């Protein structure tokens, strides 16, 4: 009788844990995702961006333009402000890097392992996190497939769970 009571208690506890784990939460990790820039803010130098995530592996491709238009001189103080902001943002996104003006490259290609991509529909956030990378996007109010980063760049999100 005591074994039966213990067994029933164990089964009930396991069922409770399964129900808790299975309850729908607003934050979900995805299996694969692609986040691609579609509209770039004129306030920074980013030209193109692609974050390709598949089963814990993330490939990042970023390009930056030194010119707003062909007639712009990159020695303008406005350019310097945008470059400083771009470098500051890259160092925040890639915390293990130490990017400075003298080693800034207009092309970034990086790969990471053991990365997670989480979608929190309640907080309207998409987060990429792992050793060496941290990036957060805000989900648009009008379209759940449209994301915006802290610099005002817009992205298109496709993913599978």
From TrEMBL:
<protein>
    <recommendedName>
        <fullName>Lipoprotein</fullName>
    </recommendedName>
</protein>
<feature type="signal peptide">
    <location>
        <begin position="1"/>
        <end position="21"/>
    </location>
</feature>
<keyword id="KW-0732">Signal</keyword>
